[in-house]
Amino acid sequence: MGKIMVVGLGSGDEESLSLGTFRRLKEAEHLWLRTGEHPVVPWLRGEGVRFTTFDPVYEKHPDFAGVYREITDTLLEEAGRGREVTYAVPGHPMVAETTVQLLLAEAGDHGIVLDIQGGGSFLDTAFARLAIDPNDGFLLLDGTVLDGDQLDPRCHLLISQVYDRMTASEVKLSLMEIYPDETLVTVATALGVAGEESITQVPLCELDREDRFTNLTSVYLPPVSSEAVLHRRLDTLTGIVARLRAPDGCPWDRQQTHESLRSYLLEEAYEFLEAVSQEDPDAMADELGDVLLQVLLHAQIGREEGSFDLGDVIQNLADKLIRRHPHVFGDAKLENATEVKQKWDEIKQWERSEEIGKAPSLLAGVPSEFPALLRAYKLQKKAAKAGFDWEDATGAKEKLLEEVEELFHAEEATQEAEMGDLLFSAVNLSRKFGVDPEQALLTSCRKFTRRFHHVEERARWFGKAVGEFPLDTLDSWWNEAKEKE
């Protein structure tokens, strides 16, 4: 049975290499080094240690994934021949070593014994040189695969494997998603290596402007308390909402319930739609914040009641999005947006039948709290999917005209009902033309407001109120506004 022993070369020169590790290297029959670019390697050569490095592999592949894959495959193949292979990596084998993680995952499947020994990690030196107390909160991340979602600016952040300017550029872009451009970052190279150690500070925006990187370079940022950074985080916002709801928080926020907040969610949603119609991105960001506040307030109330919390909201949404997108997260093949929408509705219908244990009404899922126009539109769309619909707009038009006649001949007691039928028919005609009646009416409301403001301005110019002018004058001003559009 083959065996792979993994040892760490430490983070510095021979002074940081343990005697036990040196003996293992000296006695190894088949010694491989992930790289010869390490401070201790020249000394090992001088001591007569014989080894092979994987440095040529780095030249063969365009990315590190390919390099690590070939290294792992080679080691498994060597050990698969019944040999005892020693594999030496920089630092500690369990710190920032992708090849070791691959060996851990795959050695057993190949019938190979994996024996991981220690080694001095560069973290020991980094903690001392950079004055890091990891107990305050510490993150070690790989610069070659850094993602902005991994970052937590409240912690000490050390980014390793910043090999070159290209990697530094990618790191800079990820960090600038969280930190201001002028944030000072520490570039630390060859920590603990006499004559090579370098610690410098540069503004984040200038991180990649100079060629100051080697395979021993890391980038460090201390914890921050800046509002400019922390106020962009969702957990900061949830903390603020929880504070508002605390016993010594805001009296208004404390007295709110799911019931009392109902109207605010609708109001904020409509204000966002107004910002969209005005194509105002600043207003959209602001109004979406107000919508998010309503979500967070409801989640905080649910948490206090013990019924649900924001984690439940997020999990339910994540599960739903994955479940309803089998063409993205599964094996389903959907060709266009129409097929996607159809599949979404099928899954949604199945989910509802599972919840209640039987097939629900085809009209299920349209909230009674929807505005009337929107609810009518949604109900009609659901009925249309079942085949209950006019073949074209002509049928809807004839029904609309029929309802107009019925309204004009209705007695006072039935006028409200007939007006409802007329509006319902108007929604049907809107749907046949592919027009959202809610948005169409909102557009008309904005248009009316804009034109009426012009009428008011003309009246003020004459120093009179609108009602003091005859209708034909007002109508002429109205047409003026209409012509300007």
UniProtKB/TrEMBL annotation:
Residues 3-207 form the Tetrapyrrole methylase domain. Gene3D superfamilies: Cobalt-precorrin-4 Transmethylase, Domain 1 (3.40.1010.10), MazG-like (1.10.287.1080). GO terms for molecular function: nucleoside triphosphate diphosphatase activity. Residues 256-329, 397-455 form the NTP pyrophosphohydrolase MazG-like domain. Its EC number is 3.6.1.9. It is an enzyme of class 3 (hydrolase). Keywords: Hydrolase. This is Nucleoside triphosphate pyrophosphohydrolase. It comes from Salinithrix halophila. The lineage of its organism: Bacteria, Bacillati, Bacillota, Bacilli, Bacillales.
